[in-house]
């Protein structure tokens, strides 16, 4: 049984490793510092090789000059020695440049990390703000729903009270109208069952209006003859105008039928 369990355990497939996240691109400041450092390192390596070769050459030529003892050999040894010293100086300069490049790279690394931290902080704040906005919307919906439920409940209660009050008023009005209708019904029924009374017709006397008397006609007034102003011309006497007025018509009053009592 133990062997079977071990065999089953061995047959289990291995878990797949989680895929590695792609590295974020370096900041331009850091990239520039890294490029400068790499360049100085390459230059230092090249200068070191040249210095080593020049040193070997100087040593070889110095040994040859000792053996030969000639001035030409000595001059060659001196020139090789100077070349080796010059190469060594270049190595020193490149090492100094490498030191500065390393310092610059370290500073750039710090600056890049600061900038990256700032960017990360901004992104984190934005993400947090977005999450708060979404949460606020959800909370607002919940609050609105709760408020709507409370408002509807209170409004329904208030409306129910108003409806009851209105119902009482209308019922009271209906009862009052029913009472009035019952009284009116009794009066109508009483009138319907009562015996009719005999009515005595009243005579109405119609008076005739007297006719208006005609006004007396005025007598015609005679005008005096005009005075004579000049002997040549004589004016004829004015004609007598007799103004006669027509006698006024008698007003007749029509007799109407007497109104029924």
Gap between N and C termini, in Å? 136 Å
Q: Counting H and I runs of at least 4 residues, what is the number of helices?
A: 3
Secondary-structure content class? mainly alpha
The low-confidence runs, each spanning 5 or more residues with pLDDT under 50, are 237-244
State the gist of this model.
With 261 residues, this protein is an all-alpha fold. 67% of the residues lie in helices and 0% in strands. It has a domain at 28-154.
Structure description:
It is built from 3 helices and no strands. The chain has a domain at 28-154. The chain has 261 residues and is mainly α. Helix 2 packs antiparallel against helix 3.
List keywords for this structure.
mainly alpha, 0% strand, 261 residues, single chain, 67% helix, 3 helices
Which helices and strands occur, and which strands form pairs?
Layout: H1 2-11, H2 28-68, H3 71-193
Helix pairs in contact: 2-3
């Amino acid at each position: 049984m133990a062997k079977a369990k071990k065999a089953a355990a061995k047959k289990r497939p291995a878990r797949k490793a989680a895929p590695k996240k792609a590295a974020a691109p370096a900041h331009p400041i850091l990239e520039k510092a890294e490029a400068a450092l790499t360049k100085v390192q390459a230059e230092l390596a090249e200068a070191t090789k040249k210095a080593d070769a020049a040193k070997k050459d100087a040593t070889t030529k110095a040994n040859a000059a000792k053996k030969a003892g000639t001035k030409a050999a000595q001059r060659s040894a001196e020139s090789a020695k100077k070349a080796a010293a010059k190469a060594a100086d270049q190595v020193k300069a490149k090492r100094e440049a490498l030191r500065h490049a390393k310092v610059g790279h370290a500073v750039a690394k710090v600056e890049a990390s600061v900038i990256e931290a700032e960017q990360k902080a901004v992104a984190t704040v934005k993400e947090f703000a977005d999450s708060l906005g979404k949460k606020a919307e959800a909370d607002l919906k919940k609050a609105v729903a709760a408020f709507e439920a409370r408002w509807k409940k209170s409004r329904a209660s208030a409306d129910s009270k108003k409806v009851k009050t209105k119902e009482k008023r209308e019922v009271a009005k209906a009862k009052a109208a029913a009472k009035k209708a019952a009284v009116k019904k009794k009066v109508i029924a009483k009138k319907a069952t009562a015996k009719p009374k005999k009515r005595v017709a009243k005579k109405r006397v119609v008076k005739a209006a007297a006719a208006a008397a005609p006004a007396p006609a005025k007598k015609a007034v005679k005008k005096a003859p005009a005075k004579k102003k000049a002997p040549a011309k004589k004016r004829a006497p004015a004609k007598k105008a007799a103004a006669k007025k027509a006698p006024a018509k008698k007003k007749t009053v029509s007799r109407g039928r007497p109104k029924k009592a």
